[in-house]
Amino acid sequence: MNILLLGSGGRESAFAWKIAQSQQCQQLFIAPGNAGTEQYGTNLDLKVTDFAGIKQAVLTHKIDLVLVGPEEPLVKGIHDFFLADAELKHIPVIGPEAEGAQLEGSKDFSKRFMQRHNIPTAASKTFTRDTLDEGLKYLAAAGLPVVLKADGLAAGKGVLICVSLEEAQDELKAMLVDAKFGDASSRVVVEQFLQGIELSVFVMTDGSHYKILPEAKDYKRIGEGDTGLNTGGMGSVSPVPFADKAFMDKVEDQVIIPTVEGLKKDHIPYKGFIFIGLMNCEGEPHVIEYNCRMGDPETESVMPRIASDFVDLLKGVAEGNLHEKELVISNKIAATVMMVSGGYPGEYLKNKTVTGIENVRDSQVFHAGTYLNGESVKTSGGRVVAVTSLQDTLFSALQQATADASRIYFDGMYFRKDIGFDLL
Ligand code: AMP
Ligand code: GLY
Question: Do 49 and 154 belong to one domain?
Answer without folding.
Answer: no
